[in-house]
Amino acid sequence: MNLTITLTSDFICPWCFVAERRLQQALDSLEEKPEVQYQWRPYLLNPDMPAEGMDRKVYRSNKFGSWERSQMLDAQTVAAAKGDALTFNYPAMRRTPSTLAAHRLMLWADAQGQAHALAGAIFSAYFEQGRDIGDVAVLAALAGEVGLNAEQAADYLRSDEGRDRIFELDRQARERQVRSVPLVEIGTGVISGAQAPEAFLHALQMAVDHA
């Protein structure tokens, strides 16, 4: 049984990380396991972010009005994700990165059948380890960690390949009226936001039953 799951997300979105983990929990709990084809689609929450990113405290303070407000929002994600087999290591995060390079690398990994593994590694690197996922060396290392050629990944990222394609896919998402992420399409079902694992399980079971 084949099932296509399309995930539209950005790698600095904590709820996208939560949704990815909850989706996996739901898949693991299915009695009848489908053969899943994952399609990852980019959504640039900060399309104008400089390639080098910004100091996270400065960026978040400006975005949310104060650092205290930012920390309160961070605490909300930590509380909401308890039991989701993930950790938010906010104290380790020093920069808010541009995610353009990460999305470009996903295109490259997808051509080699490793986009889903790479997505999980990028989310974990940023939120659980505090690594700068806007940095070419970090992204190339992550490619290596999921079995891809790190040197080739670095060469790819130092080029402009895939840049226009990411902006085009981002534009297409906005034309489809995507206004927030995550957006998870499971067969013909659509889940917006990091809903409870039961919501993902229900959508998966519906898709399997109607396959």
Automatic annotation (TrEMBL):
InterPro entries from the UniProt entry: DSBA-like_thioredoxin_dom (IPR001853), Thioredoxin-like_sf (IPR036249)
CDD domains: DsbA_FrnE
Name the UniProt record assigns to this protein: DsbA family oxidoreductase
Organism ancestry: Bacteria, Pseudomonadati, Pseudomonadota, Gammaproteobacteria, Pseudomonadales
Source organism per UniProt: Pseudomonas boreofloridensis
Domain DSBA-like thioredoxin: 4-205
